[in-house]
C-alpha cells in the first residue's frame, strides 16, 4: 500500500485509498479546474473538502502542503519517479496532470506553448481581476463608500472579457478544435461572473455571443457536470 505518511495533511484529511490521487479543494473557480481536469483525464482521485469559509487553508496541516494557504492542492501517490508528490497552484496542477497523461495539451511545441500562454493569461489576469471585481461587487467590498476600486476592477473584467470574445471568434475551443487546459483554466472564472457574482448584466455577458456559447459548451461536457460540484459544497 502507498505510504502518504510523510504528508502531514493526510492526518487532518485521511486518505481512504492512498493509491488514488488526493485532492484538497473547495468548489471555487480555482478549485473546480482541477476536479474537472481529473474527470476529463479519468484519473482516480479522492476529494477532500477544505472549507475556506472556516479558514481551514490556514491550519498547520494544510500549510505543510501549500505554504501560501490556498486551494487547490494535490498529493499524487504516483508522482515523478513513482514517488508520492505534492503540488499546489491550480495552473501548475493543470500543467502537471496534462504532461503526466499526455492529454489536454497539444503535442506540437508551438501549440503547446500557445496553450500554456492562455493558462498564464488566466492565472495572471482573469483570476485575480475577476476575483477582485467579485469582492467589490458582491461581497464585503460592496459596502465601501469609495466606488473607484469597483470601477477599476469592473472595467478590467470587461476588457478581459473582450479579449476572450475576440479569441473565440470562429473557434470551438480556445485552441480551435482541441479542448485543452486553456479552456479548463478560464471557463470556470467566466461562469462565476454569472453564477457566483450575479454580474451578467453589469458586465454585459449576454452581449458576448462567442464567449457565452463557449462557456455553455464547456459546462455541457460530462466531466464538467461532475467536476463543477467536487467537492460538494457544504
Automatic annotation (TrEMBL):
Residue ranges of every copy of the GST C-terminal domain listed in the record: 108-234
Record-linked InterPro entries: Glutathione-S-Trfase_C-like, Glutathione-S-Trfase_C_sf, Glutathione_S-Trfase, Glutathione_S-Trfase_N, GST_C, Thioredoxin-like_sf
GST N-terminal domain: residues covered: 18-105
UniProt xrefs under CDD domains: GST_N_Ure2p_like (cd03048)
SUPFAM superfamilies (UniProt xref): GST C-terminal domain-like, Thioredoxin-like
Family note: Belongs to the GST superfamily.
Listed name of the protein: Glutathione S-transferase N-terminal domain-containing protein
Species for this entry: Aquamicrobium zhengzhouense
